[in-house]
Write a structure and sequence with these properties.
This is Trafficking protein particle complex subunit. It comes from Anolis carolinensis (Green anole). The chain is of the alpha+beta class. It is built from 4 helices and 4 strands, in the order αααββαββ. Helices cover about 45% and strands about 15% of the residues. The C terminus is likely disordered.
């Protein structure tokens, strides 16, 4: 008799749908808990940051990507590998600066919004998918890249697409630890 406890689900779409529904319930609860949209947005971004920090190890182990040599290479890996791996989509990447440190990820379809048609009444400042910005920022932080990650366009606010802006601020130095002998 074989053990099936450690097997991955046969249909990854089911787990994605469960995540999307659970995420929707989380956002709804945060809207009940917090009066102001800014507090909900901050909470979602903070949760996403924590997820991004933890997701890096899984991503590096499962994807076997090599060290990126440029910001543009890093953003391509995020779009083509990470988004595909975790959300089942591949955003379009655009570069927004001559210095090649500002990029946009354009999502024609945002899977976090699969079951959401509009923002709740009176919640026009809510950034429903702030979790994504936090996750990207947290993951980049773990590979020693400081970045500002924000929503530029939001399909839930009437835009044609969802656009996430990523501005690389600087490469942080990894701290070398000396071993005591």
């Amino acid at each position: 008799m074989s053990r099936q406890g450690n097997r991955r689900p046969e249909n990854p779409k089911i787990s994605r749908e469960l995540f999307v529904l659970t995420y929707g319930a989380l956002v709804a609860q945060l809207c009940k808990d917090y009066e102001h949209d800014e507090d909900v947005n901050k909470s979602l971004e903070t949760m996403g940051h924590s997820i991004g920090i933890r997701l890096v190890e899984d991503f590096l182990a499962r994807s076997a990507v090599k060290k990126c040599r440029s910001y543009s290479e890093t953003i391509e890996i995020i779009a083509q590998v990470a988004f595909k791996m975790y959300l089942g989509i591949t955003p379009t990447v655009t570069c927004n600066s001559p210095a090649r440190n500002e990029f946009s990820l354009i999502l024609e379809k945002n899977p976090l919004m699969d079951f959401v048609e509009e923002l709740p009444a009176g919640r026009s400042s809510l950034c429903y998918c702030s979790l994504l910005c936090g996750a990207i920022r947290g993951a980049l932080e773990m590979i020693h890249l400081d970045a500002e990650v924000t929503f530029i366009q939001d399909a839930l606010k009437g835009d044609d697409v969802t656009e996430i802006g990523i501005m690389f601020l600087k490469k942080t130095e990894s701290k070398k630890h000396k071993r005591n002998k």
